[in-house]
From TrEMBL:
UniProt-recorded name of the protein: indole-3-pyruvate monooxygenase
Family from the record: Belongs to the FMO family.
Region named Disordered: 389-413
Cofactor: FAD
Catalytic function, reaction form: indole-3-pyruvate + NADPH + O2 + H(+) = (indol-3-yl)acetate + CO2 + NADP(+) + H2O
Phylogenetic classification of the source organism: Eukaryota, Viridiplantae, Streptophyta, Embryophyta, Tracheophyta
Composition bias type Polar residues, residue spans: 392-413
SUPFAM superfamilies: FAD/NAD(P)-binding domain
PANTHER family the UniProt entry points to: FLAVIN-BINDING MONOOXYGENASE-LIKE PROTEIN (AFU_ORTHOLOGUE AFUA_4G09220), FLAVIN-CONTAINING MONOOXYGENASE
InterPro entries registered for this protein in UniProt: Auxin_biosynth/cation_transpt, FAD/NAD-bd_sf
Protein EC: 1.14.13.168
Length: 413
């Protein structure tokens, strides 16, 4: 089948999550049209399709706003996932962002001879479109694909094994023994949800982890950190956060199986390695009460449970893998060394938003939605400067038609 070819009068944005929407919205305010390609049939598919029911934003809403639009005043400090999705839908409408859905990008490559990006995408009918434009904005994010580790003896375990992206509620697990592999925010919250639904969870904690209270005396811990960072160096702020965590959460976490890293504070590890500290919203109380068992790493799965690295056997009727996600950029971005093999810009923050030949990235800072917003503002401003210089027009808030169909390509698919 011959591929259609579409000329894009502006940037090609891959991804319609918060990063892609932010980039398109900021470009719109500069009078720059864009095309947003999304493999799913909705915006923010991670939030809409791959999150559990009780999920809320882990940070206060003022730190999660996208550029140009605050959350409604009626929203609580920690909006629910449904409220966040509603906010994103309103955001897209306000800035006239209309993604082209069911466009799964197979490859994106810079054509040096033409000085243009060629992005090939296909829909469910396997019809292929090649989008051609001067700029490419990578906005697929840090959580594009789920991580499913390989475990010895996995085939021996006969119960259901699901990734946290498939987990919605603890109701189907009522009365069951559930092994939750992973102790990040998702792992902790899934264990808490399982307890609330009468299940008996065991949480696998393989590595050291920083656990912080979500709030201290009614003030968000993240707000305290942001305030302290205005006056103090990061390492000192990390020390203060660890001290406050001991004060509010207690000093018995190592005894509970939750040891802190020997080096690197919570903010330092988040910024340098993407290891987000856990914000406790009640799981520690359940651990202390014996309702959540903390166990070490899995050695191998067996029929009826798993053998752990310390030799103990943990009985389980089901397994939930709270093992996170990873970037998928290396799978489709070709011929560029801007991204590492792990799918992150090689340049360290704050320089990782701009590459060569009109290549940009939004949402790979490992700094959450605040990092997304910062990237989007920088990217849009940089592209707008070049766009208006080329078009010799005065920036305005309106956008022209951003895609024009050309003759079908002779490339066969």
């Amino acid at each position: 089948m011959a591929a259609r070819t579409m000329w894009v009068n502006g940037p090609i944005i891959v991804g319609a999550g918060p990063a892609g929407l932010s980039a398109a919205a900021c470009l719109h305010t500069h009078g720059v049209p864009s095309v947003v390609l999304e493999r799913d049939d909705c915006i923010a598919s991670l939030w809409q399709r791959r999150t559990y029911d009780r999920l809320r934003l882990h940070l206060p809403k003022q730190f999660c706003e996208l550029p140009g639009m605050p959350f409604p005043a009626s929203y609580p400090e920690y909006p629910t996932k449904h409220q966040f999705v509603s906010y994103l839908e309103s955001y897209a409408a306000a800035f006239h962002v209309q993604p082209r859905f069911r466009q799964s990008v197979a490859s994106a490559r810079f054509d040096h001879a033409a000085g243009l990006w060629r992005v090939r995408a296909s829909d469910p009918s396997e019809s292929t479109t090649e989008y051609i434009g001067r700029w490419l904005v990578v906005a697929t994010g840090e959580n594009a694909e789920r991580i499913v580790p390989e475990f010895a003896g996995a085939g021996s375990f006969k119960g259901p094994v699901t990734h946290v992206s498939e987990y919605k509620s603890g109701e189907p697990y009522r009365g069951a023994r559930v092994l939750v592999v992973g102790c990040g925010n998702s792992g902790m919250e899934v264990c808490l949800d399982l307890c609330d639904h009468g299940a008996r969870p065991s949480m696998v904690v393989r590595d050291a982890v920083h656990v912080l209270p979500r709030e201290m005396l009614g003030v968000a811990t993240f707000s305290v950190a942001v305030l302290l960072l205005r006056f103090l160096p990061l390492q000192l702020v990390d020390r203060i956060l660890v001290l406050l965590a001991g004060l509010f959460l207690g000093h018995d976490l190592p005894r509970l199986g939750l040891r802190r890293p020997d080096s690197g504070g919570p903010l330092e590890l988040k910024n340098t390695r993407g290891r987000t500290p856990v914000l406790d919203i009640g799981a520690l109380e359940k651990i202390r009460a014996g309702q959540i068992a903390v166990v070490p790493g899995v050695e191998r799965f067996v029929d009826g449970g798993a053998e752990m690295v310390d030799g103990r056997f943990v009985a389980a009727d089901a397994v939930v893998l709270a093992t996170g996600y990873h970037s998928n950029v290396p799978q489709w971005l070709k011929g560029s060394d801007f991204f590492s093999g792990e799918g992150y810009p090689k340049a360290e923050f704050p320089e990782g938003w701009k590459g060569e030949s009109g290549l940009y990235s939004v949402g790979f800072t490992r700094r959450g939605l605040a990092g997304v917003s910062l990237d989007a503002i920088r990217v849009a401003g940089d592209i707008a400067t070049a766009y208006h210089q080329d078009s010799k027009t005065t920036p305005s808030s309106s956008t022209d038609c951003s895609v024009a169909q050309m003759v079908p390509s002779q490339t066969q698919t």
